[in-house]
Amino acid sequence: MNGEPRLLPWASPEGKPTYVVGNGTGRVSRLADEIEGLQLRMADDLLAHATALLAEPRVTGGELRYIAGCLRDSLSDVKRVAESRGARLEQKYSASDGHAGPS
Prior knowledge:
Helix content is 64%, strand content 14%. By secondary structure, it is of the alpha+beta class.
């Protein structure tokens, strides 16, 4: 994994993907790990909130639009985490056995 770019869980100010290159043990990589964990925990909490809201018979259209926007944002974060972790797994398998991914 040395020298391979890692997709970070945040975008640049212009909204473009950001990367770090290293062995995964540096300060930026550790911060990225922490933020990914936080994003995943927040997604779990948001799903619980959405479940409760959808069970409420008097939910308003505004509440549904708000939770839909929050779910969209969270899904975007979780997708970026999955892409980053998937790419790192692929690099790991490729480096260890010379293949492009797990078989």
